Each structure stands twice: as C-alpha cells, then as structure tokens.
C-alpha cells in the first residue's frame, strides 16, 4: 500500500500493536505493526503502519478492530490504501487508482452476528461506501500535482493465493478493475458507523493471466 505516508507525520507518537489491548499482531513482511498519531498538514491524524488480513488467520472482528477503536477516539474520516493487481488492461503497474466501489468476494462480512448498535444500524447502506466528495477532492489534488490517477472498482478475494487467470477474467466481467486481499471489511465497518471513506489502490502488478509470466 502506501504505508510510508506515516513517515511524514510530524511530532509522531508510536504505539506498537503488541502494546495495545486486544490488537492483533501483523505477520506480513514489511508491515511495521504500530499506530502512529501526530500532525499532518495541520490535521491530527492516526495512521496504521501495517494492517491485518483475513488470510493471516484472523477473523473479521479482529481485522476490523482498529477501525472501531478509531471511531471511539474521534476519527470521522478514513483513508484506506492497499497494494493491488490491475485487472483492467488499460491500467499499468505504478498507477494509483481511486476506489469508486468494491466487490466483496471474500466470502465473509464483518457485520455477521450480533449488531453493535452503539456503532451503527443492523442493515447499513453501502450505496456510497467510498465518499464522492472526498474522491472529488483527491482528483483535484492529483490534477494540481500532475498525477495521472485512475478510478475503478476494487474486488477483494480472501487470499493468500493470488487470483487465477479465470478469476481475473471473472472480475473484469463483474466490473472489477483491481484485485486484492484487504480493504473491504474495514470499509464496511467504517460505513456502519457513518464515517466517510477514501480508498486508494497502488497497482503493483498486472493481475494473473494478463501477462505471460507468473506472479511472485
């Protein structure tokens, strides 16, 4: 994803996940595994350096626990980032894609079970899961900085295997532009509690079957 953004936070305070009650521990290589709280462009922000994934063996309640904690400490806007494979053949590795919507193909939903009504309703609306106003602002900033940014639908698979070529073809047929193994559960939980979300995918590779060589 774009985890290095946290390095730009001023006057940072670091909170390793292992020191935070009930936080899972990130097992993914390259994830620092800590919360960073500080100032960024005059705004108080909370950043996660490392997230938790379904494929690590965590249930969705564990994967999304930090998003609920952020709600309780006053975070009302969420920017989610990920590394993804490009299913849209007009995209290329290195592109940034603003997420317009997602397809949750993971086979699970973090809101299954007893509803926590102190956070939100039993049946939350997902028609604008990714806030159009935040996306419009992101497009304006990208234009000002001469960044050619794409827009598209993100499709989540459970992982940890990469998608098969047939699954990538299916993703395109269903309207998916990028594929990955995260993001949807956190966005569902954020929407459940009425927060605005901006999603950005960093397209690190073409998805399986588009190029001849295997993924690694």
From TrEMBL:
GO terms for cellular component: cytoplasm. InterPro entries: Nucleoside_phosphorylase_d (IPR000845), Nucleoside_phosphorylase_sf (IPR035994), Pur_Nuc_Pase_Ino/Guo-sp (IPR011270), Purine_phosphorylase (IPR011268). Keywords: Glycosyltransferase, Transferase. Its EC number is 2.4.2.1. It catalyses: a purine 2'-deoxy-D-ribonucleoside + phosphate = a purine nucleobase + 2-deoxy-alpha-D-ribose 1-phosphate. Gene3D superfamilies: Nucleoside phosphorylase domain. GO terms for molecular function: purine-nucleoside phosphorylase activity. Belongs to the PNP/MTAP phosphorylase family. The purine nucleoside phosphorylases catalyze the phosphorolytic breakdown of the N-glycosidic bond in the beta-(deoxy)ribonucleoside molecules, with the formation of the corresponding free purine bases and pentose-1-phosphate. Cleaves guanosine, inosine, 2'-deoxyguanosine and 2'-deoxyinosine. This is purine-nucleoside phosphorylase. It comes from Clostridium perfringens.
